[in-house]
Each structure stands twice: as structure tokens, then as C-alpha cells.
Write a structure and sequence with these properties.
8 helices; 27% helix; alpha+beta; four-stranded antiparallel sheet; 248 residues; five-stranded antiparallel sheet
Length: 248
């Protein structure tokens, strides 16, 4: 089993980055703690706790809302300024015991292929601020999920999501309360553009073209074969799109 060799609680972002980029030291970020405590492997590692960095703000900036990376999922669920569709998707991330610990930055860093909240962030044009020793870069969430190396030795500081429009989700799970096998999240933006993201068909949730579902190559597991997942996507994507277009 992998063990924690040292615990650090930096007081500044620069101190946190210095701890994460030391040569020869395996370090992991501790945000909500819902993932790091379940890691198992051979080598010991050190944890860098971000709780003292004041990364839990939430502000409205024009047609966007900015969430600090340490904002808890339950705060997202309860927020009056986060788009209602995202609040509902945050609620589906797990029970309240998890939501009161897990953070929005942790959800992004974990890149869970089944996360409906990640799919929602994708269709809400989420932009991630990533701090490194070289400075802060703003990256579309889709790029962060594609290039996991962008987070190596880095700290997610905030998430900017577009507001406005209408969001809807369609999903299939083994039971209504279970995590979805495949889910489709669609958003009709104020400018009339429709975007769709799907979970359960790739290594992470992905933005897709509804007219090119036949190009999907989902992984298979005990809950569904690649063919089954592709068939689910072919049903769920039009369903989610139809729901948002009913509002036009």
C-alpha cells in the first residue's frame, strides 16, 4: 500500500508550487481529500494541502461566474449564481458527505469519465486557470482534459463558466440513483448555439458533434460493452438536445 510520507500546508500559492515541483519528490495535492485517501501503489508520497490558500471564492463577472478551485461541491449545489443546470449536475456527483468535502478543482483534476458535472462544465465553456512556476495560464476545460500533463506541478486556482442559456441532461444507469453508464448534457446558449458533452464514452467526458456519434469508440466494462455505450449515446444525445430546443 502506498503511504503518506509528509504533510504540508503552504500559506501561499508560490510555496505550494515550490513543494509540488521539488526534484525527486513525489507530491500530490490535497483539496477535499476524497481521492488522495484511496490511492494505492508502492512508493510513498507527500501531500500538499491547499486549504490555506483562499481559493474558495465565488463571484459573478458579467455573463460568467468564477468559482475558486477549493469551492466545495455542496456550495455549488446551493449557489444562487451558478447556472441551475450545473447545480443539479453537482448534486449527482455523490452523497452529501462527499459533496461537503469534494472541491470543484478536485473534480477537474480527477477527470472522472462518468462525471456529469464535468460534462456540464464543458458545455458551459469552462475555462480553467492553472498556476505554474512560470505564471498563470487560462485553458479551456476541454484542453485540460485532453492534456493531463498541463496539471503536472501545477495548481488549479479557479474555474470560469458561462451563464445564461438552457441546460438539460439525459442519462441511463443501472438504477435511477446509480451513476450513469452514459449521460448526455446539452446546452442551448443565448446566441442559439447548441453544444453537447457525453460521459462514459471516452477516458474523460468529451464534447461531441451530434451528427458524428458513429465515430465514438467507447471503452467497455461490466456495465456495458462498447457497442452498448455507443447505442446509448445515439439515444441520449438527441433526447438532451430536444429538451433544450423545446425552449426556443
Amino acid at each position: 500500500m502506498r503511504s503518506i510520507r509528509a504533510y504540508h500546508r503552504p500559506q501561499t500559492l508560490d510555496e505550494a508550487l515550490a513543494l509540488l515541483t521539488r526534484s525527486g519528490i513525489a507530491a500530490r495535492i490535497l483539496a477535499g481529500g476524497t481521492r488522495v485517501t484511496t490511492i494505492s501503489a508502492v512508493d510513498p508520497f507527500e501531500v500538499v494541502d491547499l486549504q490555506a490558500l483562499s481559493l474558495d471564492g465565488i463571484t459573478v463577472d458579467g455573463d460568467a461566474v468564477v468559482l475558486g478551485a477549493m469551492r466545495r461541491l455542496q456550495d455549488v449545489v446551493d449557489s444562487e449564481v451558478v447556472p441551475a443546470g450545473l447545480c443539479e449536475l453537482a448534486l449527482r456527483e455523490g452523497p452529501n458527505t462527499l459533496r461537503n468535502a469534494a472541491t470543484i478543482g478536485g473534480i477537474i483534476a480527477s477527470a472522472d469519465s462518468e462525471s456529469e458535472l464535468l460534462a456540464g462544465l464543458l458545455v458551459h465553456n469552462a475555462v480553467i486557470s492553472v498556476a505554474t512556476s512560470a505564471g498563470v495560464n487560462d485553458m479551456p476545460l476541454a484542453d485540460v482534459l485532453t492534456d493531463r500533463g498541463a496539471l503536472r506541478g501545477a495548481v488549479i486556482t479557479e474555474v470560469r463558466v458561462a451563464t445564461g442559456g438552457v441546460t438539460a441532461a439525459a442519462r441511463t444507469g443501472r438504477t435511477p440513483a446509480d451513476r450513469s453508464i452514459v449521460a448526455a448534457v446539452a446546452r442551448l446558449a443565448p446566441d442559439g448555439q447548441t453544444s453537447v458533452a457525453v460521459t462514459g464514452v471516452a477516458a474523460t467526458p468529451v464534447l461531441i458533434d451530434p451528427d458524428r456519434l458513429d465515430t465514438l469508440e467507447p471503452p467497455g466494462d461490466f456495465r456495458g460493452s462498447p457497442e452498448y455505450r455507443r447505442a446509448l449515446a445515439a439515444v441520449l444525445v438527441p433526447r438532451a438536445v430536444a429538451q433544450v430546443r423545446e425552449t426556443e
